Amino acid sequence: MDFNMKKLASDAGIFFTRAVQFTEEKFGQAERTELDAHFENLLARADSTKNWTEKILRQTEVLLQPNPSARVEEFLYEKLDRKVPSRVTNGELLAQYMAEAASELGPTTPYGKTLIKVAEAEKRLGAAERDFIHTASINFLTPLRNFLEGDWKTISKERRLLQNRRLDLDACKARLKKAKAAEAKATTVPDFQETRPRNYILSASASALWNDEVDKAEQELRVAQTEFDRQAEVTRLLLEGISSTHVNHLRCLHEFVESQTTYYAQCYRHMLDLQKQLGRFPGTFVGTTEPASPPLSSTSPTTAAATMPVGSSVAGLAPPGEAALRLEEVAPPASGTRKARVLYDYEAADSSELALLADELITVYSLPGMDPDWLVGERGNKKGKVPVTYLELLS
Predict the structure, then answer these.
(1) 310 and 285 in contact (C-beta within 8 Å)?
(2) pTM for the full predicted model
(3) Nearest 5°: CA angle at 92, between 89 and 95?
(4) DSSP string across 262-324
(5) I need a surface site. Which of 40, 122, 228, 266 has the fewest CB within 10 A?
(6) Neighbours of 112 (CB within 10 A)
(7) Are 224 and 169 in contact (CB under 8 A)?
(8) Closest residue by Cα to residue 89 from 124, 115, 61
């Protein structure tokens, strides 16, 4: 108990000395040891790395999980060292709703069949999103988080220790300076012509005491300087390790870009497949020479597989081996035309399609080899493809 009380008193004294030194420095009443310019640059770069790593980490988390409540829940699970429960993605949830809607509204109706097709595509998109989140979390977020919770905490601890060593050093310098000033004053005060011997003896005794104080302060200064230099070297080595951190984060950034490229390429491929199933081809339509969807510029194997070539032969309006005709050049068949009422507004995707307004009546017919989900519609002198799901065929 005695030892603990002594240690507590010693720690309190050190803390008080540091507090006094820090306060006097803030008020400009004490000098402080300045670090060299290289060391200051290392500190500034480390602080900048930490700040931007935090911002990039937080915003990447927002990108991967936009729901703030879900992010808080995942954070709590991680802090409690518990496994984060599997969460359904938005795409998978939408696919579930569409499938249930198709089952209730009629899976054999045009609307129900389309709902099923879109639901399958959304389910694949949701699975791709899940894989992307998992890969990005492991390859990108985890290294950034490890730096902030590991390396940076070590650097911060050593920096605080260096700050304490500097305060101790400057306090020793101030103590030595005061002791030397007091010793010089005590040395000049005694007057050898002093007629009162008692005063002379007291002055000489004070001079000897201050001399001992100067020796003690010099010894403490040498110890404080050694500890400060040692701590400065340890901190400098840690700060120079930030360069290795940048290299590691650069590698992680490349992996994040690759995983994101793979994810968007998968999404693009799934949507191409869905458009084909719905008869909305993004390639060259009959009647237009401009593609609706620009090709990806990336040349990676993943994107190369995703950019599936779509030629004019998939338009389905001309039989194989024959040149595609423009719709305005195709004469309607002598028989087989019908009237149809438009159920919903439809905006034409390109010049080969006919824009529709709800409740209007148009003439429709089919051409040999045409996709069964599409018909040719006529309104006055305008002609174009129209989707069957937007029509109610009349007798």
Answers:
(1) no
(2) 0.61
(3) 150
(4) HHHHHHHHHHHHHHHHHT--SSPPTT--S-SSPPP---SHHHHHHS----GGGG-SS-TTSPP
(5) 40
(6) 19
(7) yes
(8) 124
Q: Which amino acid is at 293?
A: S
Contacts of 314 (CB under 8 A, 6+ apart): 276, 281, 283
Residues making up the chain, counted from first to last: 395
Which residues does residue 384 pair with via DSSP β-bridges, in sequence order?
377
Show the tokens assigned to 95. Answer: 């696919």
Instruction: Name the pLDDT band for 293 (thresholds 50, 70, 90).
Output: very low
Instruction: Encode pLDDT of 61-71 as tens digits.
Output: 999 988 777 77
The angle that helices 2-26 and 152-188 make with each other, rounded to 10 degrees, is 80
Q: With CA atoms as reference, report the closest residue to 316 among 290, 286, 274, 291.
A: 286
Give the Cα separation of 49 and 56 in Å (integer). 10
d(CA 216, CA 208): 13
Q: How confident is the model at residue 12 (pLDDT cuts 50, 70, 90)?
A: low
Residues paired with residue 156 on neighbouring β-strands, in sequence order: none
Determine contact, residues 362/337, Cβ cutoff 8 Å. Answer: no
- Strand-strand pairing, 338-342 and 391-393: antiparallel
Measured CA to CA, the distance from residue 84 to residue 51 in angstroms comes to: 27
Structure tokens, 274: 């869905």
**What tokens appear for 208 in the block?**
């000897």
CB 64 within 8 A of CB 198: no
What are residue 353's phi and psi, to 5 degrees? Answer: -110, 160
- Angstrom CA distances, 287 to 202, 240, 326, 356, 385, stand at 115, 64, 5, 18, 10
Q: What is the mean pLDDT of residues 287-311?
A: 43
Alpha-carbon distance 109 to 389, whole Å? 9
How far is it between the farthest Cα atoms of the chain? 145
Q: Rounded to whole angstroms, what are the CA distances from 154 to 44, 148, 162, 165?
A: 16, 10, 12, 17
